[in-house]
Amino acid sequence: MKALAVLSGVIAFLCLVMGVITLFGVLPEEMIEALPEAFDWTAWFWLSALLFLASIACSAGGRGGGGEY
Question: Residue 25 and residue 27: Cα distance in Å, rounded?
Answer without folding.
Answer: 5
